[in-house]
Design brief:
It contains 5 helices and 3 strands; from the N terminus they run H-E-E-E-H-H-H-H. The protein is an alpha+beta fold. It has a single domain, classed as Sufe protein. Chain: A (Alpha-Beta Complex). Strands 1-2-3 form a 3-stranded antiparallel β-sheet, covered by helices on one side. A hairpin with a 2-residue loop joins strand 2 and strand 3. The mean pLDDT is about 90.
Length: about 140
């Protein structure tokens, strides 16, 4: 199976030029997730006010794909409520781990291509799993 060329272009751009900072001056939540499968690690810092994600910062030790999807996450969840961000995270898991169809906003459309590559799912969900850890703290 082949990836959609547009999806590949989006991923490559985010891998080359990630759209996130590595540190926040003020944060309300933080978490780290390390994949037992790949050893890749993602740490996330969030500033949440009035139940809305205002800022985030990420530190990734992993593949270009892990960096790219973390960058996409950073572009898509700032400004969302915690519950909306969590809903998107669950939709992505359902899409990748099952046969569910997801209505994903913006550049999250790349997950439609990633679904066809199970060996990439761990990297594709790394930052989302770190976000889950952070929001649970």
């Amino acid at each position: 199976m082949k990836e959609d060329p547009l999806h590949r272009e989006i991923l490559e751009e985010h891998a080359r030029n990630p759209k996130f900072d590595n540190q926040l001056a003020t944060l309300t939540h933080e978490g780290t997730f390390q994949s037992s499968k790949t050893g890749n690690t993602c740490s996330i810092q969030l500033r949440v006010e009035d139940n809305q994600i205002k800022e985030l910062a990420l530190t990734i030790q992993g593949s270009a794909l892990a960096i790219a999807v973390a960058s996409i996450l950073s572009c898509e969840i700032v400004g969302l409520t915690r519950s909306t961000a969590e809903n998107i995270r669950q939709q992505l898991i359902n899409l990748l781990e099952g046969d569910k169809i997801a209505d994903l906003p913006g550049e999250l459309c790349v997950y439609e291509s990633l679904k066809r590559f199970p060996e990439r799912h761990d990297c594709a969900l790394l930052a989302w799993r770190a976000m889950e850890v952070a929001l649970a703290s």
